[in-house]
Design a protein that fits this description.
Helices cover 38% and strands 16% of the residues. The protein is an alpha/beta fold. It has a six-stranded parallel beta sheet with strand order 5-6-7-8-9-10. A two-stranded parallel ribbon has the order 1-4. It has a two-stranded antiparallel sheet with strand order 2-3. Helix 1 runs antiparallel to helix 2 and helix 10 (312-322) crosses helix 11 (350-368). The longest helix has 22 residues, at 206-227. The protein starts with 22 loop residues before the first helix and ends with a helix.
């Protein structure tokens, strides 16, 4: 693993990624869908609204900012559909709890490869151009491990060949973000939550259980291959998500069954959901951190799914409890997830969203004093 001389990111209070779409952006999307405005006019509104939320993050004191994913309809599909070899058509799989939506998974139409003209490069350049000096523009993209369930056999004779193409496509994509000025890239990953559920469900079925253990091992192999050889001043993190659509979720289960795998990932930081009992307790944190002094675990203790504001004293107590497993310096705080994994968004207001982020900042500043 390539090590850094000091921990730079994640910061002690950090952003997960997505933000609630503003009213102006929602209206523009509706007008675009009704063919009342052009794609260029939609893009202009996206840029105006992105500038507003970047300024808001900076005003709150965040040291890294995102574009709120204002350039996408979905947190994952918009990235994949512009990656070479992935179809514009997606299949639906399991439902979110409470209904209302299903998970969408990608399908291949050819071999996977890097797309030098991916539209996310242009939107990152805009984000970077409006990010003030001393602040980091953070780029989020979906993890390639979510592409394990594609129709890869239609185009590949060998699983390892498919993983090699996935690795090369992602490595080159991340490297191009770096060439455009990115110094912080995050891979959002629901695959670990899926594996948690399946490993728990198959514990009495050794053959099925081993299948998911192998998937976990393959996920570690793929991610670490992507991370290998990236520039030392590029920070790479991941967000382990259990599903996020209109304040609902898909998966439940603690980290214990995947902790050893997570501990082998050569990321600089892991964002871990911990806003409810669905994520289990802090016992696996030490195994996830795995003694890596150059890695931070970002505790998602503040929920992005509901408007109720957490108690700061209780948050501080929970962080201190986590510090019994991992040194305090190697911990950080964030919301449990983004606020809008799609244009629909979670069930809270813009102001409640900013109050949540303000609480994250205030709590962290009370603890770490930096």
């Amino acid at each position: 693993m390539t090590t850094k001389t000091q921990i730079k990111y994640p910061y002690h209070f950090d952003m997960v990624g997505s933000l609630l779409r503003t009213d102006a952006l929602k209206t523009a999307h509706e007008q675009y869908d009704q063919q009342l405005i052009t794609e260029d006019e939609l893009k202009q509104v996206q840029r105006i609204e992105t500038k507003k939320i970047v300024d808001k993050q900076v005003a709150l004191g965040f040291k890294d900012v995102t574009d709120g994913e204002f350039n996408r309809n979905w947190w994952h599909l918009d990235f994949w559909k512009s990656l070479t070899g992935i179809s514009q058509e997606f299949k639906t799989t399991v439902s979110f709890k409470g209904g209302g939506n299903k998970l969408h998974s990608a399908q291949l139409e050819g071999k996977v490869a890097y797309n030098p003209d991916h539209p996310f490069f242009e939107t990152f350049q805009y984000l970077n151009s409006i990010t003030p000096d001393g602040i980091i523009a953070k780029q989020t993209i979906p993890s390639p491990t979510l592409l394990f369930g594609t129709n890869w056999r239609d185009f590949y004779d060998d699983w390892d060949e498919y993983l090699n193409d996935l690795s090369a496509a992602y490595h080159d994509t991340i490297l191009h973000f770096y060439q455009l000025g990115a110094r912080y890239v995050q891979l959002d990953d629901t695959n670990w939550a899926f594996l948690i559920s399946q490993l728990n469900a198959t514990k009495d079925d050794p053959i099925e259980h081993q299948k998911y253990e192998q998937q976990a091992a393959d996920a570690v192999r793929l991610i670490n291959h992507i991370l290998k050889g990236l520039p030392e001043d590029l920070t790479m993190t991941t967000h382990v998500c259990r599903g996020n659509f209109h304040s609902t979720y898909v998966f439940s289960g603690g980290y214990d069954v995947v902790a050893d795998y997570l501990g082998k990932l050569n990321y600089d930081g892991l964002f871990l959901e911990y806003d409810s009992g669905r994520a289990g307790n802090f016992d696996p944190l030490g195994r996830i951190w795995n003694g890596d002094q150059n890695k931070r675990l970002v505790l998602g203790l503040v929920t992005s799914k509901s408007p109720e504001l957490e108690n700061k004293s209780e948050l501080i107590n929970r962080i201190n409890q986590a510090a019994e497993k991992v040194p305090l310096e190697n911990l950080a705080l964030s919301t449990q997830c983004g606020f809008a994994s799609s244009t629909v968004g979670n069930k809270l207001t813009q102001e409640q969203q900013w109050e949540k982020l303000r609480l994250v900042r205030d709590t962290a500043e009370d603890i770490w004093k930096d």
